[in-house]
């Protein structure tokens, strides 16, 4: 019992000694004299807004189209007696592609020629008789009319004879044939397709806000999958109306293709240069916060973060152009955007 009392007394003396004799000196307050707002201010990074020059460019996905493409079809019915094409070969304008049996038409032409010859001889005889007043003028007019009618019939038959020959309307490359020699053709039967691949057309769409920034005659660059150097193309036409569902404008460009390495149907990336802007305010994309009313950023004013609604324009891979809301010299906050609130004290890191 006495031992327990002694141990308790020793413990009590140690505790009292710790409290009164071995207490550490008080630390100096490093923030003494500083205002409370400064000690709780958030450290942020800023960008001082300055005007700069940017090259406006837009990128779009395009599709290659042939310069010309026609599906060769028959206008008449008949048996195909000639088919002079090699699939995939180059054909010249006016070259004979296919021939339909024309014996019946030629026979009708021969018949008309015989009747014309007879009508001309009758007209010569009646002309002499008319001078002698042996016949009346009405009989002579009927003979002249027969000659004119036969001439019109001959023109109709010659037009039909011309339709029995299907010729290349332009120079290009013939596709795969859809029919063989000896087959019976009906009007509208497809024979083959002819495609002109030099030059080629490229069709792409741009947002409607760039409709006035891409004039006819301006140049664009085409990047092909697996190809190194881009190909230059010239804009030749703009769609006269905006697509209401997509709010885009369809654009068509023409590109040279001497080696025919660009094949119709291919996918290409289109890079179109717009007019450069030498008075642009560009901000990092991470500084923008989407809100219900649009987009906002934070700027430093009087040591506090202030919200500013902005209107944006051109966008690059890392920056966005500000059209309204910011001015040159403003201190834009670029870090800690998620933790910021309006009127929060901030300090520049």
Overview of this structure, please?
- The protein is an alpha+beta fold and 349 residues long.
- Helix content is 23%, strand content 39%.
- It has helices at 2-20, 36-39, 103-131, 137-163, and strands at 42-44, 46-48, 52-54, 57-73, 78-83, 90-91, 96-100, 165-167, 172-174, 184-185, 190-207, 219-224, 231-238, 248-255, 267-273, 277-280, 282-284, 289-291, 294-301, 304-315, 319-324, 331-333, 346-348.
- It has a six-stranded antiparallel barrel. A five-stranded antiparallel sheet has the order 17-21-20-19-18, with no helix packed on it.
- A hairpin with a 6-residue loop joins strand 12 and strand 13.
- Helix 3 runs antiparallel to helix 4 (137-163).
- It is elongated and about 165 Å long.
- The model is unreliable at 21-38 (pLDDT under 50).
Label this structure with key terms.
4 helices, alpha+beta, five-stranded antiparallel β-sheet, Helix Hairpins, elongated, 23 strands, conserved putative lor/sdh protein from methanococcus maripaludis s2 fold, Elongation Factor Tu (Ef-tu), domain 3, 349 residues, six-stranded antiparallel beta barrel
Spell out the blueprint of helices and strands.
Blueprint: H1 2-20, H2 36-39, E1 42-44, E2 46-48, E3 52-54, E4 57-73, E5 78-83, E6 90-91, E7 96-100, H3 103-131, H4 137-163, E8 165-167, E9 172-174, E10 184-185, E11 190-207, E12 219-224, E13 231-238, E14 248-255, E15 267-273, E16 277-280, E17 282-284, E18 289-291, E19 294-301, E20 304-315, E21 319-324, E22 331-333, E23 346-348
Parallel strand pairs: 1-23
Antiparallel strand pairs: 2-22, 3-16, 4-11, 4-15, 5-7, 5-10, 6-9, 7-8, 9-11, 11-14, 12-13, 12-15, 13-14, 17-21, 18-19, 19-20, 20-21
């Amino acid at each position: 019992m006495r031992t327990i009392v002694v141990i308790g007394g020793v413990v009590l003396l140690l505790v009292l000694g710790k409290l009164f004799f071995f207490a550490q000196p008080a630390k100096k307050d490093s923030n003494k004299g500083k205002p409370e707002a400064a000690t709780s201010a958030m450290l942020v990074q800023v960008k001082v807004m300055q005007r700069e020059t940017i090259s406006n460019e837009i990128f779009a996905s395009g599709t290659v189209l042939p310069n010309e493409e026609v599906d060769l079809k028959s206008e008449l019915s008949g048996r195909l007696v000639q088919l002079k094409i090699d699939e995939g070969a180059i054909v010249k304008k006016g070259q004979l592609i296919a021939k339909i049996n024309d014996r019946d038409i030629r026979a009708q032409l021969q018949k008309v020629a015989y009747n014309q010859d007879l009508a001309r001889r009758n007209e010569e005889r009646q002309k002499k008789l008319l001078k002698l007043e042996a016949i009346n003028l009405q009989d002579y007019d009927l003979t002249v009319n027969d000659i004119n009618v036969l001439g019109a019939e001959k023109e109709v038959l010659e037009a039909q004879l011309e339709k029995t020959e299907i010729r290349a309307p332009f120079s290009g490359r013939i596709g795969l044939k859809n029919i063989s020699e000896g087959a019976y053709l009906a009007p509208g039967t497809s024979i083959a397709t002819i495609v002109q691949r030099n030059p080629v057309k490229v069709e792409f769409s741009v947002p409607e806000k760039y409709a006035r920034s891409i004039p006819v005659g301006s140049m664009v660059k085409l990047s092909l999958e697996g190809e190194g150097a881009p190909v230059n193309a010239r804009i030749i036409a703009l769609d006269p109306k905006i697509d209401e569902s997509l709010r885009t404008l369809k654009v068509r460009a023409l590109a040279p293709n001497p080696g025919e390495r660009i094949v119709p149907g291919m996918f290409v990336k289109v890079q179109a240069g717009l007019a450069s802007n030498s008075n642009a305010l560009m901000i990092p994309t991470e500084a923008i916060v989407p809100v219900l009313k649009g987009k906002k950023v934070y700027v430093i004013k009087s040591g506090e973060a202030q919200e500013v609604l902005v209107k944006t324009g051109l966008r690059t891979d890392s920056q966005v152009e500000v059209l309204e809301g910011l001015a040159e010299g403003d201190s834009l906050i670029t870090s800690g955007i998620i933790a910021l609130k309006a009127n929060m004290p901030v300090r520049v890191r």
